[in-house]
What does this fold into?
Amino acid sequence: MKSILIAVALLQGAAVPDPAPLTPSGNWTVDYGDADCVLSRDFGIGKARTTLGFSPSPFGDSVEVVTMTAGAKFEYRKSKARLTLQPSGFTMDSDAYIYGLKDKAMTVTTFTAVGPAATHWRTSTGVALEPAAGPRATIAVPDMAKAFGALNTCQADLVKSWGVDPAELDKTTVLAVPVAPEGWFSNDDYPSEALQNGQTGTSVIIWSIDTRGRISDCKVVKSSGAPSLDRASCQAVLRRGRYEPALGIDGKPVPTHAMRKVIWRMP
It folds into this structure.
């Protein structure tokens, strides 16, 4: 994995509501992963340090936000959460996955939101994270537009490696809209083989969406480590996934792609 350091200036006086936003203590970096590009920055120092990471889908259809804080408080917990961007007030409902890294004495909280939010992130100066189980936090995110420029370069390289044209999103004026995505995956999809072997993990999958909003060509771009979980991820989205198709510059439906990180934990 390689990192690009992005020198950005701290913007003073951003209008972020109480609680007072955490203050940046480092520069933005972009980490090139096998199946994602992560924009991250440290806030605070010592035991109060928090690392904030953004990993938006290169197809613009979802975003993952991760925080790492001192202390391993939970083994694993799932709850609901809301993310609010400032100054736009744009909100996203999210699943929140909270777990402790005992070897590093850290708690990791992952917020996963589905929806076309990339434009709002680029113009944001702050984000409020409101998990149903846990304290609300507000973090200042200065100069996001410049940071996202470096992130876009990483994402273009990533989708090329998947055999997708990076210019696809530029030709799309309205993203494909998932129909009832909350019902695409359920505990009933957990493969019996994986249950018997106690296997867990995260499968990263991408798929094609045609001009009728139908899904095809699902493939795994990063394995969970368990073939049965990877297969179940694609089987579920192919069986239940549907979209209102994306629209091109001329207002007509165009083919596009989407991706998802499917988190498998014992039901």
